[in-house]
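Lab channel / #folding
Pinned by the channel admin:
"Please post every new chain as: sequence first, then the structure tokens as a reply. Keep commentary short and put observations after the output so the thread stays searchable."

First post following the new format, from NK:
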Amino acid sequence: MSLFFKNYIKNFSKILISSFKKLDKNLIKCSVLFKNCRLNGGKIIFLGNGGSAAIAGHISVDLSKNAKIRSVNFNEADLITCLANDYGHNNWMSEALNIYCDKNDIVVLISSSGKSSNIINAAKWCIKNNIKLITFSGNSSHNPLNKVNKEGLNFWINSKSYNYIESIHLFLLMSITDSIIGKSVYKA
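Reply from TO:
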């Protein structure tokens, strides 16, 4: 194996293990929140941009299909372009939440940088409307998304590598899903 890949895997493993140690209690809390959301008749709404939108779509399907917890994501081009056209790119997510979010729902916002204005505006919408909020971010621990989400759960990854951050976000969310199911091997 080349030196690049050895170092890449070594650094990734170090960040992943460090993240799990720091976020262990939040993983348990998130799992409980997701289960309670199902019991309260709510749904979980996932939002992200780019790679984080792909993570949102992947976890939303797994959580709904495999963990039997109703969840959605807003990755439809017609929805995004309609709301971005009418309300601006910075506001399309908060407008989507205004349309689709109910009082017993949980919103999960995923932003590797923690700086995306549409994600931050969605977080502010959740806080203003007393919606449970969970955020996933990376880069600086003082990123705007972490600053906004003072009361909710934060999953911050101590890295500046977008690929490390996104991979760990997906891994954490998949581990939460599997914890709800109670096992990591099951019929797909």
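NK: The chain has seven helices and five strands.
TO: also worth noting, The first helix runs from residue 3 to 39.
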